[in-house]
Amino acid sequence: MNYSDILMDHFKNPRNQGEIKDANGVGNVGNPICGDMMKIYIKVEKDKDGDDYIKDVKFQTLGCAAAIASSSMLTEMVKGMKVKDALKITREQVAEKLGGLPKEKIHCSVLANEGFKKAIAQYHGEDIEKSAEEKEIEEAHC
Amino acid sequence: MNKIYLDHNATTPIDPYVLGKMLPYYKDIFGNASSAHGFGQEAMKGIDWAREQIAELFGCKLKEIIFSSGATESNNLVLRGLLMSFRYAKKDNWDKKFHIITSAIEHPAILEPCKELEKEGLAEITIVGINDRGFVDLEEIKKEIKENTILVSIMYVNNEIGTIQPIKEIGKIIERINAERAKKNPKFAAFDRVYFHTDAAQATHYCDMKVKNLGVDFMTISGHKIYGPKGIGATYIKEGSPIRAVTFGGHQEYNIRPGTYNVAQIVGLGAAVELINNTKENAKINKRIEELRDKLTEELQKKIPDTFINGVMDNRVPANLNISFKNAEGESMMLMLDMEEIAVSTGSACASGSLAPSYVLLALGLSPEICHASLRISLGKFTTEKEINYVIKILPGIIAKLRKISPYK
Q1: Quick check: A137 pLDDT over 70?
Q2: Domain A5-122 adopts which CATH fold?
Q3: Residues of A near B (CB-CB distance < 8 A)?
Q4: What pLDDT was estimated at residue B151?
Q5: Alpha-carbon gap: B9 to the closest alpha carbon of chain A (Å)
Q6: B327 by DSSP, 3-state: which?
Q7: What are residue B335's DSSP bridge partners?
Q8: CA B150 – CA B223 distance, rounded (Å)
Q9: Is the confidence at residue B306, as pLDDT, over 70?
Q10: Active site residues of B
Q11: How many domains does chain B have?
Q12: Which of A13, A20, A64 to mutate to test the interface with B (most CBs of B within 10 A)?
């Protein structure tokens, strides 16, 4: 597998790995058929402007190097950001920051973004039952 | 610690003895073995010698061995070559579809040419499954044989889980079916038979290779799985079995496999087989591999909780271990081992380029989670106890690290 040095570094030394006990949003995503399962924990608080921001974020991933590294990279990117800005981060940006992903591994990087969005949705008290669109994304992963 | 290679089911390092035998054919003995002059005849002597080694291993006639570029080509030759000779046998046969039976755990070098023959409308393919122990079912194969069945192709040893398939028993079933066909048909001849092929690429170093004991009509072997060179293999074609060439050219190999003789590689295959023909020494080597494999298996099971062996351990070649560690993903394990300079392989989708986990492990009835959590660790004759001890020392930490990252505990 042709992984970049950045990706391998995140795989070897994952940042923000673990769980947040008093998280106010958790995103649980993945599909056992694909082999990648992920949980993103967030702790959202108000910043000095009175906006929601990501005070802390952590992840747990069962999956391949690309899945572990993209969750590590995403958490590093969003940490400290305002929620509204963090939501704008795309999986392409995560992949780019990782120095690119092999084509067959792009689906692994989808999960981190989905997991994060789901955690935010839970924080907002939105329905976290699987939407039709989400199910479709999950199926598309495989 | 040097790099540790534990992926011998993928390929083996070349034995120094084999390389030594090959080198003169890359330098001084360069003649075209088909040439009648001295240069050519000296090269042909090397080929003759190699053919003798293989004939000894198979217990067959010299002319029953056809050299190829490896197991993939040999398998293609048997599948397509047999089918084509049936088609060419009678005018009516051009409109007929012939039936081939194979198994769900075959190598792609069987499954893909079968699919291709099906796509071309020439064959109908039946794929039999395996049980949760890792073996094909004799009754199922017997049941699937029908009037237009011309070939049963079942691998001798599976490349992922190492299970040794009941080739002798299948051979007996097919012999009985042919006897019944002969009883019913007074004109019973070559094109009324069911033929039997086995891809023995993974079996050659460990199993009985005598074709009479196995009851096979065709058999495939490969050089690089037995400490020989890559790009060379051989096909056993029982005398009288119809095979039409699939490539056309010169007269080499009785016109069945044309092309200038790949002399050095053929000699290399011969030398690798010569080592196996030293049965006493080879049995010792295999026993040592088995002891190391068993030690590795036991220690990993002892040291790492939630460990599962995929396929049963009895009736498995000594080199192979296929093991799953729940809540650790295969590609991640493989890469972490690679960072420690230990080479293994995995049945996880993530390492294969496709998105589905190993079809062999799925055929065992394992859940996708367990397939993704699998490692194939395959030992070889140069594997040392020190290396195995190192893996036993390193792997538990890797599994623990990955399980710590995992959302499941």
Answers
A1: no
A2: Sufe protein. Chain: A (3.90.1010)
A3: 1, 3, 8, 11-12, 14, 17, 28, 32-39, 60-68, 104-105, 107-108, 141-142
A4: 98
A5: 19
A6: coil
A7: none
A8: 28
A9: yes
A10: 350
A11: 2
A12: A64
Given A6, A34, A37, A65, the catalytic residue: A34
pLDDT of the residue at A117 = 95
pLDDT at B354 over 70: no
Which chain A residue's Cα is nearest to B362? A33
Q: Is the pLDDT of residue B172 over 80?
A: yes
Q: Do A32 and B368 touch (CB under 8 A)?
A: yes
Q: What pTM was computed for the model?
A: 0.93
Cβ atoms of residues A56 and A43 within 8 Å: yes
CA B228/CA B259 separation, integer angstroms: 21
Half-sphere exposure of B392 (CA within 13 A, CB side): 18
Do B149 and B195 lie in one domain? The reply is yes
User: Do B204 and B139 share a structural domain?
Assistant: yes
Phi, psi of B163 (to 5 degrees): -70, 140
Q: Which of B355, B369, B408 sits opposite A142 (nearest CB)?
A: B355
Q: For the residues A43-58, what does the mean pLDDT come to?
A: 96
Tokens of B44: 């042909």
Residue A134 binned pLDDT confidence (cut-offs 50, 70, 90)? low
Residue ending a domain, among B245, B277, B309, is B277
- For residues B241 and B284, membership in a common domain is answered with no
What average pLDDT does range B370-396 have in this prediction? 97
Summarize the confidence of residues A27-46 as an average pLDDT: 90
Which of B327, B331, B358 would you mutate first to test chain A, the one with the most A CBs within 10 A? B331
Interface pTM, i.e. ipTM: 0.88
Q: Which contiguous run of DSSP H or E holds residue B58?
A: helix B38-58
Task: Based on the fold, state whether residues B190 and B58 are members of the same structural domain.
Answer: yes
Instruction: List the single residue in B with minimal CA-CA distance to A140.
Output: B355
In terms of CA atoms, which chain B residue is nearest residue A18?
Answer: B405
